[in-house]
Amino acid sequence: MVTIAKTPRKRGRKPQPAAPIEQPTTTTVVARRGRRWEVTARDWRRYQKSPTPEFRQRLLAKYVPLVRNVATRMAMGFPRSVELTDLINTGVIGLIEAFGNFEPTRGVKFETYAVPRIRGAILDELRALDWVPRSTRAKSREIERAQTALENELGRSPEKAEIARHLEISEQELYHALDDVSSTCILSLDEVVYPDDDNRQVPRIETVCDRNSLSVLGIIEKGELHSFLVHAIDHLTPQEKLVISLYYFEELTLKEIGEVMVISESRVSQIHTRAVKKLRTMVRERFALTG
After folding, report:
1. Which CATH number fits the domain that encloses residue 141?
2. pLDDT for 2
3. CATH of the domain at 278
4. CATH number for position 89
5. Fewer CB near the terminus (10 Å): N or C of the chain?
6. What is the residue-wise DSSP string for 156-217?
7. Distance (Å, whole) CA 44 – CA 40
8. How far, CA to CA in Å, does 239 sit from each of 36, 233, 245, 249, 264?
9. What is the pLDDT, as a whole number, of residue 196?
10. 84 SS3 class
């Protein structure tokens, strides 16, 4: 039988001292102050006693999330053309101004004091960059509120006359206001949209078209019509040709044409009407046959 010798346990053994805990520096105190990275009144007192640029920069850096939070909430009500990064950069300027004017002795938290200053700095910068007059923006908000109120009251989209009566202005003034407001809308051509006749996403620039310009087919049809009119005018009488030429190419009035042709204005009108009817009939017959 093997006997295992037990090491006698020493009585009254003192525990070994733990490794010395590193005392947190000012930076770690600020950085570990909870999720919101709040700077306490004690930190402010330390900064007032030793207002070094390094300590000031560290305190400001801990409030950058506050600026980001304010800018993010404000960006939800702005158009997509407004970049969040620009709002944050402008809000930091407001943060710096609030930091310089803040007095901890008044018993107000810095967050409470800084948030209105950050919002004000962002709004001031947006107003400075906005080319639209503030009066136009105010008109836009008034019209939107009137439309919303009338929709709730009537249960349908209000007409222009109803909006004008609600705003106590004339319809002409309302149309002028709508013209001014329509110029304030900005759309991004790179924004992805859904066309009306397709579920496929396409950039907005692909849906933009000039309704006043002719398509390739329209240009061909216009050239064909022009060529046919040249041929059709040759079938008019010399008197009708002269009236058409003076009226449409020389841009003379009927009275001036009568003076040139030494006939009355009413006679010129009759000749012009007869020539236009002949041309219209020939065009209809021609394109009815080819169509």
Report:
1. 1.20.140.160
2. 42
3. 1.10.10.10
4. 1.10.1740.10
5. N
6. SPPPHHHHHHHHTS-HHHHHHHHHHHHTT----TTSEE--TT--S-EEGGGG---TTS--HH
7. 7
8. 92, 11, 10, 15, 14
9. 62
10. helix
pLDDT value of position 15: 46
1 inside domain: no
Gap between the Cα atoms of 115 and 158, Å rounded: 39
Q: Per-residue pLDDT tens for 11-24?
A: 445 444 443 433 33
Domains contained in the chain, number? 3
- 122-133: buried (b, 16+ CB within 10 Å) or exposed (e) per residue? beebeeeeeeee
Q: Is residue 149 part of a domain?
A: yes
Question: Which residue type occupies 72?
Answer: T
Residue ranges in the chain modelled with pLDDT below 70: 1-41, 79, 81, 129-134, 182-188, 194-199, 210-215, 288-291
Is 278 a domain residue? yes
Tell me phi and psi for residue 96, to 5 degrees.
Answer: -65, -40
Per-residue tokens: 188: 């991004």
pTM beyond 0.90: the answer is no
pLDDT at 38: 60
Spatial distance between the Cα atoms of 116 and 61, rounded to a whole number of angstroms = 18
Q: What is d(CA 211, CA 214) in angstroms, rounded to the nearest whole number?
A: 8
Q: How far apart are CA 120 and CA 192, in angstroms?
A: 32
> What residue numbers bound the domain in which 49 lies?
26-129
**Which whole-number Å values give the CA distances from 19 to 16, 22, 23, 25, 181, in the listed order?**
9, 9, 12, 18, 71
**Torsion angles phi and psi, residue 36, rounded to 5:** -80, 0
Per-residue pLDDT tens for 181-205?
A: 766 666 667 777 766 666 677 777 7
Cβ proximity of 257 and 268 under 8 Å: yes
